[in-house]
Design brief:
Residues 11-71 form the HTH tetR-type domain. By secondary structure, the chain is mainly alpha-helical. The chain is built from 9 helices and no strands.
């Protein structure tokens, strides 16, 4: 894969380390991953790793932050391009469906492990900020749909509440996906209902 122009060698190395750490956290969860695991996976020296990251906690926080930035960039580009609200919503819900179907191959379990164990002010703020950013992202999308006349069931002043409701629904589905043996149809039905609620009964 070609690296984008303008990225320094240092940023390339950090991105590589983060990708390897991501894969390890997905495979093992948060608790089971050590800095030694990351050194081995990256095939670099311990000093080479510690030059950029000094703990698994620091690595995980960076992964959470970057994941949120990527989501915002994707939504922003599509809205700037004038992509229909229904198409953006459908793509977003398809990604959620894929994550739920393959919950064991996502960062979800590691994220729960991390945030349930780390209750320091820094991590509480990170979680609040991540939730707040997701809420703003979805409420912005809903307002975009209202402006385009594609969302008739929700008034603009209700956009934030509707976004929050969708976030709570998705969080509950993730917990169920981790804890219960539910089939793909269950998750698809719940996500379709969420879409109907947003679009006033029109399938996206």
């Amino acid at each position: 894969m070609c690296e984008p122009k303008g990225i320094s060698k240092s940023e390339e190395k950090k991105a590589y380390i983060l990708q390897q750490a991501y894969e390890l956290f997905v495979e093992k969860g948060f608790y089971a991953v050590t800095m030694s695991d990351i050194v081995e996976r990256c095939e670099i020296s311990r000093g080479g790793l510690y030059r950029y990251y000094t703990s698994t906690e620091q690595l995980f926080r960076e992964l959470i932050r970057r994941g949120g930035e990527a989501d915002q960039a994707d939504f922003g580009v599509k809205m700037e391009q004038g992509v229909p609200f229904a198409d953006i919503l459908e793509g977003f819900l398809e990604m959620q469906h894929d994550e739920l179907k393959q919950i064991g191959s996502s960062l979800t379990q590691a994220a729960y492990e991390f945030f349930l164990a780390h209750r320091e002010a820094e991590d509480r703020k990170l979680l609040r900020d991540r939730h707040g950013d997701a809420g703003q992202l979805l409420s912005g999308l809903i307002r975009y749909g209202i402006e385009r006349g594609e969302v008739a069931a929700i008034a603009e002043k209700q956009a934030a509440a509707a976004a929050e409701h969708l976030l709570v629904c998705l969080e509950g589905l993730r917990i169920l996906a981790l804890a219960a043996d539910l089939d793909e149809h269950f998750f698809k039905t719940q996500l379709e209902f969420a879409a109907y609620a947003l679009t006033g009964g029109t399938q996206p």
